[in-house]
């Protein structure tokens, strides 16, 4: 290529899964039966009424044109009702909800809206890689706040305050990313944690961006939204998504919820980047949001059933893990006998044709960990266990 890349393209690496899944597809094309337990891509179906709504809507002549930049009123009202029913949070459907093309997109839009070149952004290490990658792309200064096993993967708020003190007055820290139930460690959300986070955001005048896609997956207690905490409205926004909770990852339906001023500011940026979503997707998403509690319960029963096989897989590897994790994954520590997560993951992929995620893709503190997804039928996970046992 004779045209030089922009600095941001040179400093950004292709997403790990984008590279590794191409490798998985190459092995599959060569005839290998790869069991993919790496990625959180639900294999279960959306509810039947969701699919009916999609096809009914697609047959409407009015469904195929541009749609409102801030989504249809029906979708926003559906999200508002879902927030009320699920979390006891009242949102104004007209002003406090912004549908997104998946919540991942919201990370970029929030960053573009609130971060100037050189501003600080607090990012969890360990955490979802997009927080860091996008912060760097927009020229922000990444301040990693460590999450450690012996702290139950909870932030150390005093250490966080010290990190803020390093920021020059001209480039303060403006955003803190938070995500509980936490990916990849499965640490649950608690009201005490959210209250502490909101106090921190008020004390330091940073925007608390909470990413909440896993609240309904294997949750042991009623799900919580950060927006249910007193005072959150002034300093916090929440991203949420149908990808995991409604088995709709490929549909790319997420949203941001928060005070009107935050929603308006993000919409100003976003309306210059994309032009809304396909109407049938929004109509069907509104329908999905009416799935009864039993539907969620049944989905969780399937994941719960798969856990036994995942635990057997980890036991065979000699890993240790917490049994109270929430979300779509199990996070496990490698035994000392394993040299590194990278060699283990590659050995499993190329010898046993089983793909799992190495912990280091979520930050260096994940070096001695692996993450197993529950998005595989239990028979396939048991098949992976058998392959391991045969190889031992
Ligand atoms: C913590 C976290 N946030 C956001 C996302 C992205 O979700 P979406 O499909 O809504 O973009 C993921 C997906 O894996 C995730 O794990």
From TrEMBL:
Residues 33-388 form the Aminotransferase class I/classII large domain. It holds the Pfam family Aminotran_1_2. The keyword Transferase applies. Its EC number is 2.6.1.-. Gene3D superfamilies: Aspartate Aminotransferase, domain 1 (3.90.1150.10), Type I PLP-dependent aspartate aminotransferase-like (Major domain) (3.40.640.10). Its cofactor is pyridoxal 5'-phosphate. GO terms for molecular function: pyridoxal phosphate binding; transaminase activity. Keywords: Aminotransferase, Transferase. It comes from the Bacteria. PANTHER family: AMINO ACID AMINOTRANSFERASE, L-GLUTAMINE--4-(METHYLSULFANYL)-2-OXOBUTANOATE AMINOTRANSFERASE. Belongs to the class-I pyridoxal-phosphate-dependent aminotransferase family. This is Aminotransferase. The lineage of its organism: Bacteria, Pseudomonadati, Bacteroidota, Cytophagia, Cytophagales.
